[in-house]
């Protein structure tokens, strides 16, 4: 008893620096160069960052490349905010309750009767989902069992956001508890589906609500007279020709674009006569190969759109698109003015080797991994703008500084080299 008490006492009075902390989060972004992860705490909804090193132990992950966006993890953090261990929280279900990507694809190709339920929140389902799937958010399924087939023996497949997402297993358990006998979870989920370049669809009612400058409506038919309101034309035949030409010229895929569209995360909705038209599939595959992250095909195509009497207009030949600013992102014009006139402190969070290829005159280079060690160099009484190559590390730096009490900080969420070139910013 005495020995037990002494152990408890030693723990109670141990210095905090000797006590490790455990955190649970969902990856929002990661920089393997700077060894920093930005994550969301699912309970508190707070966004913060942690560091890792080459010595950080990975569990249930082969490399840090497995820590993709929305990956759920548990991490042990030392007194310096550095992760000593990171474990992916993988979904674990009996083998008979799991279906893989190829099997699900074959079921759809062969027209087999299968009900596919998207267990993600409705706002996530709306921006892109597996063809034929229905929105069945797991947190509302118990009260809405009418979403499911009446036949309790029908094959039902639920999916969500990948191997660490708990939503499809949760939906599976609800269905089974209510008498459904043939329920499976597509654990690999939507990321794997997109990763295999299988088509993703979007419903017409959602598109109707988002006919604005922040979305690209791309009509890939040959010589369309009318299309979805706001659509721009680029026939799939022309797109394929561009693809072949760039292949011969060995243009890097991340440098390939349409209409000089720099934003690889731009929501692109492909329009053809039908969702399974060759033009739609071909354009989807090319743009996905070109590293556009959010490409989808309009469900039921232009035929369905016209039949529903939804807004139409003549197609445009020039794209009008404006990237929707993320929280903390700076307007391009503000960054350009700061670069040319010195109206803000610009911090370049790239590594020294990257900076040697060209930097804004007067900018300060503080690599992201060293940012928290150089706070004395960063003022709190003037606007501070962070930039990197494409915005990912700058976003992490923004989060880090706001957690340190900085209130007048922004980041460039764009391709730095292109912004500089397009606006005549002289690089040193």
UniProtKB/TrEMBL annotation:
Q: Which Pfam families match?
A: Rhodanese (PF00581)
Signal sequence coordinates: 1-20
Keywords associated with the record: Signal
List each copy of the Rhodanese domain by range: 110-202, 211-314, 340-415
Q: Which InterPro entries match?
A: GlpE_sulfurtransferase, Rhodanese-like_dom, Rhodanese-like_dom_sf
Q: What name does this protein carry?
A: Rhodanese-like domain-containing protein
């Amino acid at each position: 008893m005495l020995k037990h008490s002494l152990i408890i006492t030693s723990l109670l009075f141990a210095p905090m620096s000797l006590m490790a902390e455990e955190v649970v989060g969902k990856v929002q972004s990661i920089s393997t160069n700077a060894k920093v992860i930005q994550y969301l705490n699912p309970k508190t909804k707070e966004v913060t960052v942690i560091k890792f090193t080459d010595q950080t132990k990975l569990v249930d992950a082969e490399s840090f490349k497995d820590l993709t966006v929305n990956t759920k993890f548990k991490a042990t953090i030392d007194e310096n905010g550095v992760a000593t261990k990171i474990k992916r929280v993988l979904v674990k279900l009996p083998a008979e309750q799991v279906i893989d990507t190829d099997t699900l694809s074959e079921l759809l190709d062969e027209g087999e009767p299968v009900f596919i339920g998207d267990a993600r929140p409705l706002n996530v389902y709306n921006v892109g989902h597996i063809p034929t799937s229905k929105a069945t958010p797991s947190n509302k399924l118990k009260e809405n069992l009418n979403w499911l087939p009446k036949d309790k023996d029908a094959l039902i497949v639920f999916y969500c956001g990948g191997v660490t997402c708990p939503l499809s297993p949760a939906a599976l358990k609800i269905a089974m508890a209510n008498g459904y006998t043939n329920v499976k979870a597509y654990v690999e989920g939507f990321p794997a589906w997109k990763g295999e370049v299988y088509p993703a669809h979007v419903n017409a009612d959602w598109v109707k609500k988002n006919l604005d400058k922040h979305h690209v409506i791309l009509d890939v038919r040959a010589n369309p007279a009318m299309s979805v309101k706001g659509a721009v034309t680029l026939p799939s035949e022309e797109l394929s020709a561009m693809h072949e030409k760039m292949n011969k010229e060995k243009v890097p895929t991340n440098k390939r674009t349409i209409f000089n569209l720099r934003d690889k995360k731009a929501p692109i909705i492909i329009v053809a006569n039908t969702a399974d038209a060759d033009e739609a599939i071909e354009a989807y595959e090319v743009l996905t190969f070109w590293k556009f992250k959010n490409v989808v095909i309009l469900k039921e195509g232009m035929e369905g759109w016209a039949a529903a009497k939804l807004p139409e207009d003549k197609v445009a030949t020039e794209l009008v698109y404006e990237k929707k600013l993320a929280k903390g992102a700076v307007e391009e014009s503000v960054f350009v003015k700061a670069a040319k006139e010195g109206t803000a402190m610009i911090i370049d969070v790239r590594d020294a080797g990257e900076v040697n290829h060209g930097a804004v005159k007067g900018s300060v280079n503080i690599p992201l991994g060293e940012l928290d060690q150089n706070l004395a160099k960063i003022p709190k009484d003037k606007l501070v703008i962070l930039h990197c190559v494409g915005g990912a590390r700058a976003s992490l730096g923004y989060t880090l500084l706001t957690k340190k009490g900085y209130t007048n900080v922004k980041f460039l969420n764009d391709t730095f080299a292109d912004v500089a070139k397009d606006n005549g910013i002289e690089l040193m």
